[in-house]
Design a protein that fits this description.
By secondary structure, the protein is an alpha+beta fold. About 45% of the residues lie in helices and about 10% in strands. Bound molecules: iron/sulfur cluster.
Length: about 525
């Protein structure tokens, strides 16, 4: 039986209330910024030169009161809102994916445990696909089923389990917050979205809304990437969806729409719709449970109808359709990038072009030795506890200055290793393996990979960063980033090439010997040669 969830007071605006928040000039500024369509292409030049449209009456501030957005971008009809909720929830009940955190959220009776289970899933799902998260989530909940268990874990253990999920600070912050709940709040999670956001480090507006609605039944909306896409399409919002004024409007809309009796399910349904039906590139509009409420789809249908009328020689019934019938609308696509018929509903959402990632080059060295039974072992070192990839383990690495020439890179790495190990390292001893590229969210990282075989153990200055030798298996079980796993893979690939070329030259030598009918001094006879019948003298 599903547990009864306490209902927290709803902090939700009344339906169709005049929206508060940014004024129209802010919205216009956002709309005027350079935008890009999600997966779209540039608008034709001719259309970009459309004259500016007249300002909408009443769009400007009067006496400081913010004007509501134009009606076509709102949900203002209570009957429509009810119908949309009903359709979406019925679809969710039929089609929702079976996910471990959903099971916990409906079967766990303890509110703190339920909130913790949702919280972990929400943090893991930020920037990561559901399919990837499932295994991590199950392992995490098995290891730390409660906040108390997580609070007692070490950062090293957290990093080890998180390794491969990316955005490593998320795991660290989750654990810090769990410690705070245990030590400062007697293990009791805050009970509203507002308090969750205010009191827990790493919990933003979205995560707070998701925990509060799913775990406690608080009627509060959520806005994530999937919700942004669905809402922008439902209401033809073509202004920059990453700009604060538009984001505020979307929050207003999410809070207006959320179902009062099943807020958690409603929020999950909206996100599920964005993840499985209203997807970025090829949305399945025909299967969409809310298609009758979708203005983007209506617009496409209208255009198709006009096109077929034209085909039969009827006059064009739409002279020059304004996007929403309101001139200078701050939520419509900007005049510089109007609706593009070839894109259909994927005209929405749009956001400002992303900043180019920073380009960074790092020299890294796979230091290796022969361990037990001749298997290779690698020396790894721990990164500092703050900054990028905090606390993770990596091969000794050196950030390279921009534009440094290849031989200078090698010398710089040799100097770095020498200073670190206290052993003489010549640049010529480093064997170049190749380059490995890894894209972090904001960094385009190229690792120039070298290897260096070592004969004995390396005694490092205890004052330097912690380091240890690991087997390949231990390496993969350690808190290492995906980028470092790629580096090791590059080294192993090269080792494979080396051994196949050694085998190749051995085979060639063997064949030569057989052709000569004799063995070279010191060369072992092959089995075939050994068994070969002696030739007559
Ligand atoms: Fe998205 Fe299409 Fe549904 Fe509109 S009809 S919400 S565009 S899937």
């Amino acid at each position: 039986m599903a547990p009864r969830r306490p209902r927290a007071p709803a902090s939700v605006p009344a339906l169709a209330r005049p929206a508060s928040g940014p004024d129209m000039s802010q919205l216009r500024a956002a709309a005027a910024k350079g935008l890009r369509r999600s997966g779209g292409r540039a608008a034709p030049q001719q259309q970009q030169q459309q004259p500016a449209r007249q300002s909408r009456k009443g769009a400007s501030l009067r006496g400081g009161a913010p004007a509501p957005p134009p009606a076509p971008h709102l949900f203002s009809d209570p009957a429509e809102i009810e119908a949309l909720r009903g359709n979406l929830l019925a679809w969710y009940d039929r089609c929702k994916r079976d996910l471990p955190w959903r099971t916990l959220a409906t079967t766990e009776l303890d509110a703190d445990r339920r909130a913790y289970a949702v919280w972990v899933s929400e943090i893991m799902l930020q920037q990561t696909q559901v399919a990837t998260v499932i295994d991590y989530y199950n392992r995490w909940m098995q290891k730390w089923p409660t906040l108390h268990a997580l609070a007692q874990a070490s950062l090293e253990e957290v990093n080890e389990l998180w390794a491969g999920l990316g955005y490593y600070s998320r795991g660290k912050r989750l654990q810090e917050a769990a410690r705070k709940v245990v030590s400062e709040m007697a293990g009791r999670m805050p009970r509203t979205a507002e308090d969750l956001q205010k009191l827990l480090p790493g919990v933003g507006r979205y995560t707070a809304g998701a925990i509060a609605s799913i775990s406690y039944g608080q009627a509060t909306g959520v806005v994530d990437g999937n919700v942004i896409r669905v809402l922008c399409r439902l209401r033809c919002i073509g202004a920059d969806s990453s700009s604060p004024p538009v984001i505020d409007r979307l929050w207003d809309m999410a809070n207006t729409l959320v179902d009062r009796s099943r807020p958690g399910d409603f929020n999950q349904a909206l996100m599920e719709l964005g993840a499985t039906v209203c997807v970025p590139k090829a949305p399945l509009c025909g299967e969409c449970p809310v298609k009758q409420h979708c203005r983007a789809r209506r617009r496409v249908e209208k255009e198709l109808a006009f096109a077929s009328q034209k085909l039969f020689g009827k006059p064009d019934p739409v002279p020059d359709v304004e996007d929403c019938g309101v001139g200078g609308c701050p939520l419509c696509p900007p005049a510089t990038e109007p609706w593009d018929s070839s894109l259909g509903v994927t005209n929405f959402p749009r956001k400002a072009a992303k900043k180019q990632p920073r380009v960074v080059k790092t020299a890294t060295c796979v230091l290796e030795r022969r361990g037990c039974h001749g298997a290779p072992e690698y020396l790894i070192v721990q990164r500092p506890n703050s900054g990028l990839l905090a606390g993770l383990w990596e091969f000794p690495s050196l950030l390279l200055a921009q534009g440094l020439q290849e031989e200078k890179q090698q010398e710089a790495l040799a100097d770095h290793l020498q200073a670190w190990m206290g052993w003489p390292v010549a640049a010529g001893d480093l064997q170049l393996i190749g380059e490995v590229v890894h894209i972090f969210s904001h960094i385009h990282q190229t690792y120039v990979v070298y290897s260096l075989p070592l004969d004995g153990d390396v005694t490092l200055d205890p004052a330097s960063s912690p380091s240890r030798w690991v087997t390949e298996e231990e390496f993969h079980a350690s808190a290492v980033s995906t980028a470092m796993k790629k580096v090791l893979k590059a080294r192993e690939k090269q080792r494979g090439k080396e051994s196949s070329s050694v085998m190749g030259s051995k085979r060639k030598r063997g064949a030569k010997s057989q052709r000569a009918g004799s063995t070279s001094p010191g060369t072992q006879l092959s089995l075939r040669a050994f068994l070969r019948a002696p030739t007559a003298p």
